[in-house]
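Hi there,

I know you've been waiting on this one. I reran it after we fixed the sequence typo, so this is the corrected version. Both the input and the resulting structure follow.
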Amino acid sequence: MAKICAITKKSSIMGGGYSNRTRATKFNPTGKVRKYVNLQKKRIYVPELKKYLNLTISTRAIKTINKNGAYAVLKKAGLI
């Protein structure tokens, strides 16, 4: 399973940074950290199609579906 949202296309990013001491001296750099998007497996009912869809979507996409409706959001994302 790919760790990417089916609707918003969000995926993980590389994070990490430097401490203030490192910025001043360029010594002892901090490591890189991968930050993952908050993905949830959801079973969404689409009344217009009269069927359920199993999707792995981000929590932001869940809020968007609650606001705009499943059919409109999935159609805009190209899933139906």
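Quick highlight: Residues 13-77 form a domain with the Ribosomal Protein L24e; Chain: T; fold (CATH 2.30.170.40).

Best,
R. S.
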